[in-house]
Amino acid sequence: MDIATSSLSQAHKVVLTRQPCSRVNTCSLGSVSVIGFSLPQISSPDLAKCRRKQSSSGFVKACVAVEQKTRTAIIRIGTRGSPLALAQAYETREKLKSKHPELIEDGAIHIEIIKTTGDKILSQPLADIGGKGLFTKEIDEALINGHIDIAVHSMKDVPTYLPEKTILPCNLLREDVRDAFICLTAASLADLPAGSVVGTASLRRKSQILHKYPALHVEENFRGNVQTRLAKLKGGNVQATLLALAGLKRMSMTENVASILSLDEMLPAVAQGAIGIACRSDDDKMANYLASLNHEETRLAISCERAFLETLDGSCRTPIAGYAAKDEDGNCFFRGLVASPDSTKVLETSRKGPYVYEDMIKMGKDAGQELLSRAGPGFFGN
């Protein structure tokens, strides 16, 4: 089955324990079309309003999906087609509608689903594919070429260097940055028996797991959307996995969580839990729309973390973690981490300073330079 067909047709929730059977409703909530997928234009799954007929038993008899493109869209949103990416696009759409009455009308906002390199290549670990922008390149190209007006990204997927002719002026309010432990037999990583296999494609997670729990094993080629990875876990491919809590919350799937890892146990990826929205640098109209959605505290924290990542020249082959947040005194507290590829060495640092853009950029860069100096030649195995 085509990956898009799979990800768009399945229900949002994958529950690891046995649950009562329920009817799943898929219906149109606006204009949605697809680029790079071999399937017809279909309606988007969502949780809000849907017209449906019910039998006397209360079960759904029919749900008629209609592609609503009766007018030219004011805003065309570009996104990947995974359930999480779509949830983020829907969140963006609803926030735009709530701020701008002219966008409430059906068809005023159109969602364009775009297949990226990272979506197409699922047989290899991300680190082996190489390159940057694996989940953003094709969306950025559509933006630059004028096929879409704004691009909704998971910020952790966005390279530190933006493509020419684009800007990223907006971050939505950040979700919980922590990682969730998912397992059917244990409550935490510490409870897993020696030799247990944890599935994760993230070198950041792998390095921190094996540094603290060297008796465990990690399956690196554990790819796919959240639903796919949960299905692999349920099928016994691995004994446990880690997922970003933010994504599970956005898809209302937190019932799958066995426990939440503290920041001391697992420092998050740079920009984890944050949504970024880009537009063309010469499009003042879209820039103004995005300015109305921007959450400045989140934008500053992400800028600090990305300055750290840029200084380290991080890639998919480099285990890097970083997190900036406002502390109880209103200052920025930043923590950064870098690990050797074999997980034997983990270097950490922290910074504290004013919650001001220039100061936070300086903190991120300074922390990165410190870890580069401490790591020395050969630390990253290059």
UniProtKB/TrEMBL annotation:
It is found in: Plastid, Chloroplast. GO terms for biological process: chlorophyll biosynthetic process. Its cofactor is dipyrromethane. This is Porphobilinogen deaminase, chloroplastic. The lineage of its organism: Eukaryota, Viridiplantae, Streptophyta, Embryophyta, Tracheophyta. GO terms for molecular function: hydroxymethylbilane synthase activity. It is an enzyme of class 2 (transferase). Pathway: Porphyrin-containing compound metabolism; protoporphyrin-IX biosynthesis; coproporphyrinogen-III from 5-aminolevulinate: step 2/4; Porphyrin-containing compound metabolism; chlorophyll biosynthesis. NCBIfam families: hemC. PANTHER family: PORPHOBILINOGEN DEAMINASE. Its EC number is 2.5.1.61. One of its GO terms (cellular component) is chloroplast. SUPFAM superfamilies: Periplasmic binding protein-like II, Porphobilinogen deaminase (hydroxymethylbilane synthase), C-terminal domain. It comes from the Eukaryota. It holds the Pfam family Porphobil_deamC. CDD domains: PBP2_PBGD_1. Its main location: plastid. Keywords: Chlorophyll biosynthesis, Chloroplast, Plastid, Porphyrin biosynthesis, Transferase. Residues 75-287 form the Porphobilinogen deaminase N-terminal domain. Residues 301-372 form the Porphobilinogen deaminase C-terminal domain. Belongs to the HMBS family. HAMAP family: Porphobil_deam (MF_00260). Tetrapolymerization of the monopyrrole PBG into the hydroxymethylbilane pre-uroporphyrinogen in several discrete steps.
